Amino acid sequence: MSSQELKIAGKDALNLIKELSSITSFKILQLLSKGNLDISSIARRMKLSEAHISGEISRLEDLHLIKVSYAPGKRGVRKICELAVRQISIILD
User: Which CATH number does the domain housing residue 12 bear?
Assistant: First the structure.
């Protein structure tokens, strides 16, 4: 896990706030704070579909809150998610 801080302002800050207001996104970040997980594991723990979790993961990745890597799986490729930041600062200027 990375210990980076994300500093964000303007429109990006608004997008970040909107995404973090989603209970699903926030819970995903909480899960990833404990360790890396693949999409299937996140979906199973949250009792949600893999498609729904995949969409949330894409948005979190676009905001640079998580990093994604790929690893071989039983049936294809597993998408492994890792927390990219531990602290977020919103710049109001």
Answer: 1.10.10.10
